[in-house]
Amino acid sequence: MMYEKPANRFVDRCFIHCSASDARGLDYQGEQIVSTIKRWHVEGNGWSDIGYHFVMDYAGDVFAGRALTKSPAAQRGNNKGTIAICVHGLTVFSRDQFESLRLWCAMVNQAHSGRISFHGHCEVSNKSCPVFDYSGVLQLDRFGRIK
After folding, report:
1. Distance (Å, rounded) from C-alpha 118 to C-alpha 141?
2. Most-buried pick from 22, 58, 67, 81 (CB within 10 A)?
3. In this predicted model, what pLDDT tens digit does every residue of 16-53 receive, in sequence order?
């Protein structure tokens, strides 16, 4: 999968999330993770779709969620002009996930001419999401820009 800049929507920020679930195994990957999160968001929250644009499984594979033409439903009050990426996990994350997150975020940043700042959900909520050092993983400067 490749990232394609949404033509109809201005984007200047990207929020990183975690799924708050360590459900894993060879039988619980990719599309199954996306469909589970979508069910949580639609049935549990009453949303029209999954809140995230992309979901990353333990293998580091990236799967499409909400259409990029639509704002996410992931950071209450902070969805406009953003992209939402969810890294599957709560206490266990893989090296492949972090490497894929770095590459994916670099691709998003490049598609937007280096104008994207990256943030954790925790920056705009009282949650600790994501529960890993996203700033260190992405090597962000103090403004949330990729160094």
Report:
1. 10
2. 58
3. 999 988 766 545 677 888 998 999 999 999 999 999 99
Distance between CA 135 and CA 25 in Å, rounded? Answer: 27
pTM of the model as a whole: 0.93
Give the burial string for 64-82 (b: 16+ CB within 10 Å, else e). ebbebeebbbbbeebbeeb
What is the C-alpha to C-alpha distance for residues 47 and 136, in angstroms, rounded to an integer? 32
CA count, 13 A, side-chain hemisphere, 34: 16
Residue with tokens 């979508």: 38
Domain boundaries, the chain: 13-138
Please report, as a single letter, which amino acid is at residue 121. H
Distance between CA 105 and CA 115 in Å, rounded?
A: 12
Q: Give CATH superfamily name and number for 13-138.
A: Peptidoglycan recognition protein-like (3.40.80.10)
- The pLDDT tens digits of the residues spanning 118-128 come to 999 999 999 99
- Sign of the C-alpha dihedral computed for residues 68, 93, 109 and 104 taken in this order: negative
